[in-house]
Every structure is written in C-alpha cells, then in structure tokens.
Amino acid sequence: MCRLAAITSSEYFSPMENVLALETMKEGHDGSGMGIILKDLGGEFEEFKEFPVLSGICSESGLETVDKYMADHGFQIKHVWSPSITEVRGIHKRDYYFAKVYQYPESYLDKTIPEKEDLLMRTRLALRKMGESDESIIVFSFYPDILSIKEVGDPLQLSEFFGLDNSSLKAKIIFAQGRQNTNYAINLYACHPFFIQGYASMTNGENTAFVPIREYLMSRGFPGYIGYNSDSEVFTHILHYLNRHLGYPLTYFKDVITPLKASEIGMRDDREALNLIKKSLRMLCIDGPNCVIGFNPDGTCFMVQDSKKLRPGAVGGLKGKYALMSEECGIDRVVPKRDRSKDIFPMKYDMVIIPPGAEEVRVWNQLQG
Amino acid sequence: MEPASRLDHNHQLSLRELPYIIRWRDDRCKRCGKCTAICPVKAIEPTVKILRNVTSEGPVPTPVTSRKVVYVVEQVLDINRYCTGCGSCTLVCPNEAIEPELNPQNKFLHFKNKGGDAYKRGGRRNDPSVSTLDKLKFTRISMLTDPALDAGRHEFRIRTLLGRNLPPEHLPLEAEGGKLVVKKDEIFIPPVREIYPIMIGSMSVGALSPPMWEGLAMGITYLNEAEGMPVVMCSGEGGMPPRLLKSRFLKYFILQIASGYFGWDEIIHALPHMVEDPCAIEIKYGQGAKPGDGGLLMSYKVLKLIAEIRGVPKFVDLASPPTHQTKYSIEEAVAKMIQSMSMAWGFRVPVYPKISGTKTARAVLNNLARNPYAAALSIDGEDGGTGAAYNVSMDKMGHPIATNIRDCYLDLVCQGKQNELPLIAAGGIGKKGNLAANAAALIMLGASAVSIGKYIMQAAADCFGDEYNRCNLCNTGRCPRGITTQDPKLYRRLDPDRVAERVIDVFKTADTELRKIFAPMGRSTELPIGMSDGLSIEDKAMAERLQIDYAC
User: Fold this and answer.
1) Which of A219, A252, A272 sits opposite B182 (nearest CB)?
2) How far B261 CA lies from chain A's nearest CA (Å)?
C-alpha cells in the first residue's frame, strides 16, 4: 500500500515538506520508489511559467538524442535545471536527471493552447518511444509550469540524493508518492503521480478493474492513453478523459469511478445525466481499494475514495495551506498548528476539493450533488 | 429350406449394439408392470417365457424335465424402440428391480437410420468431455495488496445492460453551473434495460409444455417482484399467451421473432392493448445446437392453445425455415428488420439478433456495430440445446462459444465499442452444473450476459437429458418428465409451482456463487466484463487463443 503526500498552498514551498510527510508515514511504503510532481513552479522556474518544461532522465546517448530531436523540431532551450546529485548508498545513479524549459517552435507560437498541448504530448510520447527499449530516455512530463522527479529508492534517501533540502526548487502544489511495490515490476514509468496535459493523480491501492479500464481508455483513439505500467495510471487518464475530452465538471470524476446506485441517483438534480453516464461510462467504474488524490489544470486539488472506502486518506490544514495525505501524521508534519478537529476524512460519497490558492476546503457529497 | 440367417437371428441386433442395456432383476421384480407402462419408447415389454427346468433326485442321476411359464421384462431389439436410458422405469419401480445401464461400446449410430431416415432427436451435443468453459479458472485472487471483498458483507450489484449504450461522446450533455444537463430532442437515446446477467434463453410455448413454460414464467416473475432480481426470459418463437401480452408482466419477457414468424399476428394485434413494453425483441437468425437448420413443431404438438397463440390451424406441422426467406443481406434486410421491430414499439424496446456460433460471427458483429439501432448480439455456441434437430447438426455443426465471444469482444475493443454493443453468450453454460462459474468466465471473456436453456430444464424440471444421449426425446412429444410435450397425460406429471420454486432456487444460488467468485477478485459494483486478467487456463494453446494467462 503506497503512501501519498500532497500539499497545496498559496505560497511557494519546498518538496522536502512532502518528503518529510512521507517519512512520517514510512510504515506504508517500502522504498521501491518516489515520484514528485510540482505545479505552479517557483524559484528559478518562476519566470518561465508560460514555457513547457520537459522532465526526465537520460543516459549520455539519450541526452544527445533528446537534444537533437528537440532542436530538429524547433524547440529552443530557455533554461536547464539539473539536481546536484549526492551519491547515496542503495540508490542507483543514472546519467542525467533534468528539467529543461523550452520555447515553443516558431510555427506554434500563435497556436491555441489545446494545439500546443497536443504538440507537447506528441513530443513526450515520441521521446518516450525512442528511449523505451534501452531505457536511454525516460520522460515524465512536458508541460508548462510542471516538473516531475521520479526514482527508485526510499523517499528520504532520494531527497538527499537529489539534494532537495538545499535546492531552490519550490512550487505551490506538490504531489509526492512513496511507493510500495505490489504486483507489477519496479519501473519508473509505474511510479506515481501520473501526468497528462495538465491533469495529475496518484493513488493508494490496487485497481481490480484495471484491465477493462485500460482497454477502454486505449480504445478511445487518443494517443496519450498508453503506458499503464501501473494500474493507477488509468485514474489520471480517466480524469483527463472526463474533464478535458468530454467537458464534464470535476465532480463527475467521482460519479464515473464510483457510480451511485439507481435508488441514490434519484436523489440528485442531475439524475437524467447521471443515468446516461452511468451506462455509457460503465467500463470506467472501479471497485477499489483506492484513495485518489489529483489536480486539474487550474490547480484544483481533490481527494476521493472508492465506494467502500477501503483505503486511508485525510485532508487538513489552514487557510492558505492544505495537506491531502494518506495518514493524519503526514498532515501533522506539514501543518502542525491547525485545528485537528477540522480534519476531513472523506468517506465513500465524499470528494474533498481545494480550489487554487488553497483558501478553503470544500466537501462535495455525491448523494446531494 | 429355411435360411440359416433367420434361424440363428443373424440379422437381429444384439443388445450390445444399443446405447443402453436394461438391467432387470428377476428376484426383485414383482411384475407390477409400472416400468413397461411408463417407458416412453416401449423399449421394454412384459413377455411370457417357457422355463425348462431339469432336476434329479436320488443317488443315481435321474433327470426329470419340467416346464413352467414365467413372466419377464425384456428389452426389445428394434432400433426404433431403443432404450434411451431415461430411467423412468427405475423411477417407478417399487423394488429397484430395473435400471438402464450405459453401453459405451454401442454402435447405435450405425443403425439409427432405418428407412433412410436420418436420426433426429432433442437435447444437445453428445460430448461429455470437459468444456473450455469448465477449464477456465479464476486465478486473480485479491490478497494482501488489495483486500478481497466480503461476499456476505459488502454490497454487490450483479446487473448488466441490455441495449445500445451511446458512447459518451454522443451523449446530449452539457455542463451548466457545474452540473451536466441533458439536451432533450437532440439525439435518439436507445433504450437500455438493466437486467440480471443470467437470462433464460428462448424456448417456445409449444416446444415446452404449458406447465413448464408457466413454471419458468412464474419463477422469473417472483424473482423480479419479490427478490428484486431482474431476471428475464425469452419467449422463443411462437408468441405468448394473449393475456400475458396484455399484462404488466410483459416487461420480464423478451419476445422472439424467428423465420416462421409464428405468433406475431397475435402479438401485433395485442400491441394497442399492451400496458408495458417487453424487455426486448430477439430476432433469431440461428441456433447454436443446429446451425443452419430451421425448426419444426410437429403437428401432434399443435393443440388448441398452441394453435391460438401461433395463429395457425390445429394439428399441422409448423416449419420454421432455416433462414428468413425475406432476408438476403445483413446490410440492408437485417437492418430493416431491426428498425421495423424498433418502430413497432416506438423505439422504446431494444432489438437484437441472435445467431449461432460461427466463424463469421465477427462479420455480423462488425455490421451491427455500425447499426445504431442494433441493441446487442446474442451468440449461441455449439453446446446449446434444442427441442428437435438432426443428430449430425447437433453433434458436428457449430462453433464453441468461448472463442466466438472472445474474438467478438476483442474486435469491439479494437473499435472502442466494447460498451456500446452488449454480447450475450449462450450454449453450454452450466453443462456440468457449474452455472455461475461458466457465466462468470464468459463475462470475463467479454460477454455482457449469458443465456441458459437446457440447464434450467435439468435443474428446474429434472430433465433427464445429458451428453451421453440420455433420453433426448424432446422431438417426439413423449417427454417422460412432461417438459417438452403437449400430451396432457404426460405434462400433468409436471407441477408448475415446483418448477417456479426451482427456478428461484437456481437463480438465488447462482447469485450467491457469482458473489463468491467476484468477491475474492475484488469486484462488486459493476460486472467484470472483459476482466480477462482474472482468468487462467491449464492449456497453453487455449490460453494463447483466448489471450488469457496460462497457469499450471
């Protein structure tokens, strides 16, 4: 069972806060990996908000391939960040960890945002494909104001390895996952959080409906729905499919993955629509056990549970800073001076939503809509 | 001079040629005559024999012959009166003095063609081997990484959808103020029924006796109304009693139209008086047990009730041609038929075709996938049953259901239409009694629902039939259990209330067993359609063909 640590704040903060929160929840992860996604970047990235950031890991040869490919396709480097690596026993160092900020190709400067997003995704997929067989190129995200770091190892050791405690890396939303490897091989592409075109999510638990959901997503004809080295990647793609592709408001993510019973749907104002989507999106229903934490492109963060609430999850904080964690001890580490009695433990019908800016936390109840 | 062949019985069959040999025990028999009276094929008869007894008394052999008349029960050697092994004799015998015994070395098929008549029978394929469905195992057991669900404690929702599900991209929805609203009149939303994933397949009033059909109908009505289980059944070809057509219970029935169109005059006339829509309309193009063969209700089964329901004169043979005579192409004529049937109920009722399992199933499927009015595709595999067919059709024609369903499902996946067009699998479900396991396996291979026929006859009405050609007299109208006969003397043996009770037993048990399968696999909310990672098989070639795991 993995451990999740997400923080959303009105101020920039260091990913070390997430790592230390994961450390308090150490019983729940086994050092088989950590993934971090930073959104709304600060520090040295603050001036590059409009420009896409390519995050990944390369071998020496892979780096050349990446640079050549990007140059050939008209991307111009504006800024390069690379962690200062401190070798730590037990962590296998790869050649080159990076986050590169690019300027869009000239022909894309006047294109719409969706067109730009599609270019970024196609570029990421092309790079991924080029380096997949020999693992010479591993790319996690290519999107403006998003940075991803993933590696196999214990979160605290990894933070030392990447020098996060001395780094100027900061963001207003940071998701981190301490991985407990279960039934799939250790693979960096299997490490949460997953990201696609502004949407990210990480999950605690196993998705027993993984295969039918994967087949359904892969058959949507959308090139980004590939990968699935982890059964949890489907949650990110479901979120993307519903919100971006179908245009459904965020709360329908909950309605699709854990649909209400017929008798319960009758209590909702939008019952007609719910009845239709329950049938048409039947293949995306999960059975858990899963706690899902995610964000969408505008920076709204949320937490939902499976319909039996089989995984832990808690949300707490103060105006301006909220933590969405697997366990309350994680919240204690991040926001110790809060009123603990106001902590939220979302149950099977709840969706905890924190709008951008972390000014407030709302609990949306599925029964009431 | 008399030919020797006659004297030594040379042209007579021996008992060893027959499929079942009667074991009769002289010492137990009290000569009550019940066995010979009940035998549906007159395979046994009471006979008088002269018993020659030689005795000798005293120290010196002095043989004395005496003769006495004895009464015995004897098996006849006429191939047309062969013992079918039904065991009715054993049932009625008060002293356990008689029973048929399977003769695996029989040469029955060598001789069952007297007068040039090819062997016809009811039942299903005579193949007692373990079917593919029974070889499939559920091997993805949730353990410590993902806790198994509790079949007794957690809430389970074992339901499926019958009808065309619009792809989400086509739903007339719009987001307004954070909520989705339906834009009415923008698009045709096909009717979709939520039903129980095991349904009772098409068996007609006519093929079935009145108490059998009534028992099934009462059973599913009880399941719907008292147990909250939306089990539906298909009428089979030949319509339904007019009172039922006009009742509120019609919603639990799927009306079938087949190549003879029997009963449809009555159905169309009842349309203005219907207070409920039927669950669906099934257009039968083929049957798994006898692909490419039509149906025939023998004249002696066409009694007053049947004639009235079907809208035909009494006591005439009712032949349904092998194909719909008006249909010459799936693109045009079948589409038209689907649309016509949809139109008859104002597009409120799902309409789907049923075909026999075949290599060409994918071609049919792909055509239906492009037809927005096609509500599903039902595929009936080679292990399906029938009331009457040529033995060769039953034994040698047809396609196994497992690969047919899997291929079709994967085809739909390629097109992204796996949730649009539900697949209904039939043929051999519960062949060895494993109803829930076979149903679950087919669902995980990609079926949305399964249909049963022979199984429910066996489980609910004690049908004798099996894969060793036991009984299988459905075509003769002399069903010893009263299931497939219109002879009141025979069908009065069958109590419709008991049939209904057994139907309820069967479905409640299947429901429990489905939970017992789904719970350890961590599934409870939606049916695990296409959850192929849950399955394994102990045969590499089968695993590869079905695209599932091989486990040994």
Assistant:
1) A272
2) 33
Residues from chain A that touch B376, judged by Cβ atoms under 8 A, are none
Tell me, yes or no, whether B1 lies in a domain. Answer: no
Contact residues of B toward A, CB < 8 A: 140, 142, 145-147, 149, 154-155, 157, 161, 165-169, 171, 173, 175, 178-182, 189, 192, 194, 413-419, 521-526, 528-533
Query: How many domains, chain B?
Result: 2
Beta carbons of A280 and B165 less than 8 Å apart: yes
Report CB contact under 8 Å: A287, B526: yes
Question: Model confidence over B11-24: pLDDT tens digits?
Answer: 889 999 999 999 99
The Cα A62–Cα A56 span in angstroms is: 11
In CATH, the number for domain A50-144 is 3.30.70.260
How many other CB atoms are found less than 10 A from the CB of residue B275? 11
CA distance B246 to B225: 18
What's the mean pLDDT when you consider all of chain A?
93
Contact B416 A220 (CB under 8 A): yes
- Residue B324 pLDDT class (50, 70, 90 cuts): confident
Q: How confident is the model at residue B1 (pLDDT cuts 50, 70, 90)?
A: low
Of chain B, the percentage scoring pLDDT greater than 90 comes to 80
Judged by CB atoms closer than 8 Å, whether chains meet at B179 and A220 is answered as: no
CA dist B341 and B333 (Å) reads 12
Of A270, A273, A285, the CB nearest to B525: A285
Q: Inspect the interface and report whether the beta carbons of B168 and A277 lie closer than 8 Å.
A: yes
Q: B466 and B513: one domain?
A: yes
**CB-based contact A219 B192, cutoff 8 Å:** no
Q: What is the mean pLDDT of chain B?
A: 93
CA–CA min distance A232, chain B (Å): 13
Residues of A in contact with B523 (CB under 8 A): 208-209, 287
* Helix and strand totals (H; E) in chain B: 18, 23
Q: How far is B551 from B139, CA to CA, in rounded Å?
A: 8
CB spacing of B530 vs A183 below 8 angstroms? no
- pLDDT bucket at A165, cuts 50 / 70 / 90: confident
Cα angle for residues A57, A62, A66 (degrees, 5° grid): 90
Read off the tokens for B53.
């007894």
Residues of the domain holding B298: 135-158+196-550
- pLDDT of A182 higher than 60: no
| Residue range A62-71: mean pLDDT, rounded | 95
B143 with B102, same domain: the answer is: no
Q: What pLDDT, on the 0 to 100 scale, is given for residue A28?
A: 64
Q: Among B369, B372, B420, B416, which residue's Cα sits nearest to residue B187?
A: B372
Q: How many CB pairs under 8 A join A and B?
A: 127
Q: For CATH 3.30.70.260, list the domain ranges present in chain A.
A: 50-144
Provide CB contacts within 8 A for B263, sequence distance 6+. B235, B237, B238, B239, B240, B309, B310, B311
What is the amino acid identity at position A117? Answer: E
**Is there a single domain that holds both residue B139 and residue B113?**
no
Are B526 and A285 within 8 A, CB to CB?
Answer: yes
Are B357 and B209 within one domain? yes
Instruction: Say if B271 falls within a structural domain.
Output: yes
CA distances from B285 to B2, B295, B354 (A): 57, 11, 6
Residues of B in contact with A251 (CB under 8 A): 178
Residue B163's contacts (CB-CB under 8 Å, 6 or more residues apart) are B190, B191, B192, B193, B280, B350, B375, B376, B422
For residues B112 and B254, state if they share a domain: no
Chain B partners within 8 Å of A281 (Cβ)? 168, 419
Q: Are residues B428 and B371 in the same domain?
A: yes
Domain identity same for B42 and B99? yes
- What share of chain A has pLDDT > 90, as a percent? 81
Judge: A270–B180 Cβ closer than 8 Å, yes or no. Answer: yes
pLDDT (0 to 100) of residue B153: 80
Superfamily name with CATH number, domain A3-40+154-365? Aminohydrolase, N-terminal nucleophile (Ntn) domain (3.60.20.10)
Q: Are residues B110 and B201 in the same domain?
A: no
